[in-house]
Specification:
Helix content is 29%, strand content 27%. The protein has 417 residues and is of the alpha+beta class. The chain has three domains: 72 residues; 62 residues, Dna Ligase, domain 1 (2-Layer Sandwich); 238 residues, 2-Layer Sandwich (D-amino Acid Aminotransferase, Chain A, domain 1), CATH 3.30.470. The strands form five sheets. An eight-stranded antiparallel beta sheet has the order 13-12-9-10-11-14-19-16. Strands 5-8-6-7 form a four-stranded antiparallel beta sheet, sandwiched between helices. A four-stranded antiparallel beta sheet has the order 17-18-15-20, with no helix packed on it. Helix 5 packs antiparallel against helix 6 and helix 11 packs antiparallel against helix 12. It is globular. The N and C termini lie far apart (69 Å). 38% of the residues are buried. The C terminus is likely disordered.
């Protein structure tokens, strides 16, 4: 929608059947998009799972942004991704791969630690257990429900969770990188079910140990595989180091909507440069201030097994909200009324930019409050949560005080008093 509003001809194909009603009345949609490709077309893959198609289109000479078979493996095959992290010299929490629920339950019983559950192919939402007993109960429930078992159990590592994104041009990363602080729990104070995202802030980041001990170490592997585009490494940082957790080799949600608030050039310029193999150079984003995103949804979100209601009206927004609204399960009816399109019940990420976190997130909150949506749900405590997280981050990367060599020599010869 942003590209269309910037004056570009846009057509969209939605692969996921559950979301086929998204953007009706808002965007031109194509069942067979390949019939519409011209030499000037830029094809954008905005999620994972389309690697084979993306590589075939590249081989045919088309300009393609996002997705590759390597990217799909990196996100969907947890065991492979963690192995490549270790190969690159990134610290990885002890992890064990399982192909049966009973084996996982036995493992936790024999090694009673706190674990994080992560499913291959993103078939199930990740789960952070509060105790060994909690994890065994979670695994038993999945076994009872008959889910296919291919998953990792990863030791829980305590520390500051932070994601680092870089834009890679096939040879090297552009500067600057950007950090994302994200919240996933649906309700205030991190209570309730986990979702993909309920809100985040994004900022450009200077070179620091989080980058140097994390994503930057992966540069050689990305170059070997010819990766082009954005990629995010989710980490836990503590006194022992920077621990890699998982890769997001695609546009991240809602980090990407927040990042759009930070861009200093039109979105199409960024996408086209990477799709057509241009050198990354400097990444065009504000190096001060924050981009923010706040997700608004309706029940039963974040439940994925039950379809959300369709045709719930979305009112109260004003024209000024449009550049700061990243819509998801939404369509426009014949009377010009925005409505929910069903699917998962994710309505929009409202975004904002500000010199401070309260400024940026405050703008998101204003739009969320203004939106008139039946049974809308969103978090109201994220300003304080992100201010606290960012303070911990600034303390973590604070450089050691350096004393000039001449001063050190003077200290060495001084009177102890």
């Amino acid at each position: 929608m942003r590209l269309k509003e910037d004056g570009h001809a846009v057509s969209v194909h939605i692969r996921n059947k559950k979301a086929r009603g998204d953007y009706d009345g808002l965007l031109n949609k194509a069942d067979n998009f390949e019939n519409r490709l011209t030499p000037d077309t830029v094809v954008i893959f905005d999620s994972c799972g389309g690697g084979k198609t993306a590589e075939r289109l590249r081989a045919q000479g088309h300009s393609v942004f996002g997705s590759s078979m390597f990217a799909d493996q990196l996100e969907l095959d947890r065991e492979l991704a963690l192995g490549l992290m270790s190969e690159a010299g990134i610290l990885v929490p002890p992890s064990q791969h399982f192909a049966s629920w009973s084996d996982g339950i036995a493992y936790v019983h024999d090694r009673p630690e706190r674990y994080v559950f992560k499913a291959d192919k993103n078939k199930l939402t990740s789960y952070v257990a509060s105790s060994p007993e909690d994890m065994m109960e979670f695994l038993r429930r999945q076994e009872t429900e008959g889910e296919t078992a291919q998953f990792e159990l990863q030791d829980f590592v305590k520390g500051l969770e932070i994601s680092t994104e870089g834009w890679f041009d096939g040879v090297s990363f552009a500067r600057p990188f950007n950090h994302t602080f994200e919240k996933k729990k649906l309700m205030n104070d991190d209570i309730g079910p986990s979702s993909g995202c309920v809100g985040n802030i994004v900022e450009a980041c200077p070179m620091c140990r989080i980058i140097e001990e994390g994503i930057l170490r992966f540069e050689g592997i990305l170059r070997y595989h010819g990766y082009v585009g954005c990629i995010d490494l989710n980490t836990i940082c503590n006194d022992d180091g920077v621990w890699g957790l998982e890769w997001t080799p695609r546009l991240g949600y809602d980090a990407f909507p927040a990042l759009m608030e930070m861009l200093t050039v039109p979105l199409a310029d960024v996408i086209t440069r990477y799709a057509r193999g241009g050198s990354g150079g400097d990444f065009p984003m504000n190096t001060t201030g924050f981009g923010a995103a706040l997700r608004v949804s309706i029940p039963p979100y974040p439940c994925e097994d039950v379809d959300a209601p369709r045709e719930v009206a979305i009112r109260g927004l004003v024209r000024a909200d449009r550049p700061h609204s990243y819509f998801y399960n939404v369509y426009l009816d014949g009377d010009g009324q925005l409505r929910s399109s069903g699917a998962w019940g994710a309505i929009a990420a409202f975004t904002g930019f500000g010199e401070t976190i309260p400024d940026a997130m405050g703008r998101c909150m204003e739009a969320a409050k203004r939106a008139e949506i039946r049974e809308k749900q969103y978090r109201t405590d994220l300003i304080g949560e992100f201010v606290e997280a960012h303070a911990k981050y600034k303390n973590y990367i604070k450089p050691e005080i350096s004393i000039p060599e001449a001063a050190m020599e003077a200290v060495a010869g001084a009177d102890p008093a």
